[in-house]
Design brief:
By secondary structure, the protein is of the alpha+beta class. It is built from 7 helices and 11 strands. The strands form 2 sheets. It has an 8-stranded antiparallel barrel. Strands 1-2 form a two-stranded antiparallel sheet.
Length: 286
């Protein structure tokens, strides 16, 4: 269950800030502190409209008992943020995209498979997406002689926490213009099996073209391995991601349509929209 305390309003500060160089000692208005606390660090000045709209999105999601639906109100706010010019430019290669993100909301896309709909239902479990760089020498499957040649690999890890001592982590190798991955060629097939939507229907070909007005917004990925972790005991996820016969079916991409220091909105290759909240670094370390 999502703990909305982590996205609650910050407590306004009533203390004054003293500046010795110009001998000023004035108490900043409470609303100015509020804006500064929520201001994306990449912005040059406070943007009250952006803050207001982000807060409205979080409050609306918090007030929605379902985390996986086609709420018109949530969709409207998402589209307003996507169409604004407030988001961080080139989000797929921005430093702000890395880190641990908590899934808050997912729409119920018709193209998603029944399994996928359950796997991204954040009302049942705490679901995260961790984006980080893995050094090649951390991967036992890479020859030591190739470490220097290959360099770091971008990883997108999907983490489902069933409780304090049980979780599932499925890692995907990722590719961007900053961290290109040679293996990640374009997906060729939609994923339908004998005409049935079992694994979800992916966009391919012309339907999968990147939006030229949003440069460096797409992260390509291919699922590579997964493990259940039961209080330190690891059990492999029973899907052979690396088998050649499945490799095309486990490829995908996410387009980051809005990114700030605290909110990320992404649209996947199967038509699903995701709203995620950045976890505090202190929580990550804990």
């Amino acid at each position: 269950m999502i703990c909305m305390a982590s996205i609650g309003l910050l407590v306004l500060s009533n203390s004054a800030t003293a500046t010795a160089s110009n001998e000023r000692s004035a108490t900043a208005p409470a609303f100015q502190n509020f804006f500064n606390n929520f201001l994306p660090k990449s912005s040059a000045s406070p943007n009250p409209q952006q803050i207001k709209l982000e807060n409205a999105l979080l409050e609306t999601i918090n007030g929605n008992s379902k985390r996986l639906d086609n709420s018109k109100e949530i969709t409207s706010i998402v589209e307003q943020l996507e169409q604004s010019n407030w988001g961080i430019a080139e989000p797929a290669i921005s430093p702000q995209v890395k880190g641990l993100w908590r899934l808050l909301h997912t729409n119920n896309a018709d193209t998603a498979s029944p399994i996928q709909r359950k796997a991204v239902d954040a009302s049942k479990y705490s679901i995260y997406q961790d984006i980080f760089l893995r050094q090649d020498d951390d991967d036992d499957n890479i020859d030591a002689d190739d470490v220097d040649k290959n360099g770091p690999t971008l990883i997108v890890s999907q983490v489902v926490k069933f409780g304090d001592k049980a979780q599932l982590a499925v890692d995907a190798l990722a590719s961007t213009s900053q961290y290109p991955l040679e293996e990640l060629t374009t997906r060729q097939r939609t994923g339908k099996i004998l005409g049935a939507n079992i694994l979800g229907v992916s966009k391919v070909g012309e339907d999968a073209q990147e939006d030229s007005s949003r440069p460096n917004s797409r992260i390509f990925f291919v699922f590579d391995e997964g493990n259940f972790n039961f209080n330190g005991l690891k059990v492999p996820y029973p899907v052979p991601f690396r088998w050649p016969i499945f490799r095309d079916a486990v490829k995908g991409w996410i387009d980051i349509t809005y990114l700030s220091d605290r909110i990320r909105i992404s649209r996947g290759n199967k038509g699903t929209t995701f709203v995620l909240l950045k976890e505090d670094e202190d929580e990550d370390d804990g």
